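Q: My collaborator sent me two sequences in one message, no labels, and asked for predicted structures for both. Can we handle them in order? The first one she listed is below.
A: Yes, handling them in the order given. First sequence, followed by its C-alpha cells:
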Amino acid sequence: MEKSKIVWLVGAGEMASDYFRVLKSFDVKIIIIGRGDLSASRFFETHGIKPNVGGIDTFLATRPAFPDAVIVAVGVEALAKTTKSIIQYGVRRILLEKPGALYYQDICELSVLAKKASADVFIAYNRRMYASTLHAQRLIAEDGGVISINFEFTEWSHVISPLHKAPGVKESWLLGNSTHVIDLAFYLGGKPVEMHSLISGSLDWHPTSAVFAGAGRTDSGVLFSYNANWMSPGRWGVEILTANYRLILRPLEQLQIVRKGSVVVESVEIDDHLDKVFKPGLYEQTFRFLSEAVDGLCTLDSHMEHWSYYARIANYEI
C-alpha cells in the first residue's frame, strides 16, 4: 500500500471504532467525521481522538482537501444520503457499510450517481474476508469447485425486539444484517439466476416474514438451499459441498470439514491471527480497499443485482 494516504472515516459509533483500530495499523492519515457530540465524546474516550462533529454536510461545507478514500460507517438509515453527499463533493473511492441503503430506490439512485461521477463504491461485506472464508476458498479451488451450498440466517428475535433503532431498520433487518450470510453464500456459490422462496409468520418488529425456506440455482450451476426461523432457536451457518469435502462455516469465523467416506467433523486449522486482533475480516477488507487490490470486494452494482433476491427471500417490496 502507498504511504501517506488520506482516509475519511465517516461515523463515530461502534463500527467506526472497529475501522479506526484497523486504520491505525496502516500508514494513513485518518480524519474522523461524526455527527453528534455524544458519539464524538465516546469515541474520544475510547481512542483519544476527537471527531469532527455536525455530520458530513457540515464537514464538506468547510471545503476540505480531497481524500484518497472514504469509509462510510454511519447508521443504516443514513448510509445512502451520506454517500450521495460524498460522491457529489467529488470523492471517487468509497467503502460503504452494508446494506448501503434501506430502500431499493436509494441504492439505484446511488448507483446512477456513482456511474456519472466515475466513483468506485464497494459494499462492506467483511464475512467474505474472514480467515475461515479465505481458507475455504483454497480448499474449494483444490477440489474443483462448489457443487451445492446451503445456508441458514436465523436471527435472535428476543435480542433484536427490544433494540432501539431508527424507523425502518428493524423492519428491513434481513437487508441490514442477514445479508452477511446470504451474500457470503452467493459469493462462494455464484450469482443466483433462479430461486423459489417460501415464507410464513410475522413478528411485531418484522411484519413481512419470520420463517424462511427456499432453493435455487446460480450462474455457476450450483444448487443452493436456505432456511431460517426467527421465531425459534438457530444460528448463522454456511455449508459448501465439493466432490470430496463438506466445508462447514458454523460459526462463520471457524471452518470444519467432513471428508468423503467419513462422517467425522474435523476442525480445520486456519491462520486467523488478524481476525482475533481486529473485528474479523475487517483488516483484510480494508487492506484490499486501500491498496486497490479489490478482488473479492462487493461492488455496488453486484449488490444492487442481488437486492431483488433479498427482497424475495424476506417478502419485501421493491
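Q: And the one she listed second?
A: Here it is, processed independently of the first:
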Amino acid sequence: MGIYSERVLPRIIDVACGMKPTKPLRRQVCAPLKGDILEIGFGTGHNVPFYPPAVTSVAAIEPSDLGWELAGTRLRASRTPVHRAGLDGQSLPFEDNTFDAALSTWTLCTIPDAEAALREVRRVLKPGGTLRFLEHGLAPEGDESVRRWQRRLDPVNARLFGGCHLTRPVADLLASAGFTITELETFYEQGAPKPMGADSLGTAMAR
C-alpha cells in the first residue's frame, strides 16, 4: 500500500461514488433491507442515508482507514447503528448464519477474489437470507463493442482505481458462489461511459 492507495484513492472514490445519479440506485438497492445487515465494501458510507428504518444494525467491512474516516459525517447522522467489523470480505470474522441480509454496492469489481468473498457472504447469511447487490461489470451479451472496450480499458482502470475491474461477470460470480438470483436488472448507469457503467442490480438468495 502506497501513499496513492492509502491517502489519495479513497478521496477519489468518495467523490466518484457520491455523484448524483448513484443516489436513486442506492435507495433502490437498500429499500428491501431489514434486520441485522452485513455490508461488504462499505467505502465512505454513501449507503448510510438510504438504510431503511427496518435495518437494526450494520456490520461494515472496509479495508481503508481513510475511507472509514471519510464516512464519519454520514455515520454521525445515521439512526442505524453501524460498526466497522472487519477489513477483508474474503475472510469474514463471523459465525455461520449470523446476518439477515447482506449488501454490496460497486464492490465485487475490486475484491481480489470476488467468488471467495461471495462464498463468505453466503456462509454468514441466515437460512433464507439474501444479498442485495448493485455492481458494475461485463456489459450484457450482445453489446460486444462495449465488451471490447472494457477488455482494452481494464488493465488501466485496475491500476488507476485500486484493482477495479470492468470485465467481471456479476451474475456468473453469484451463481458460482452458491447464490440463486431472484431479481435482476441490467442497465447502463446515467452519465457514465458505457464500458464503465454496465450495472447489475438485484437480489440473490443462498442455495
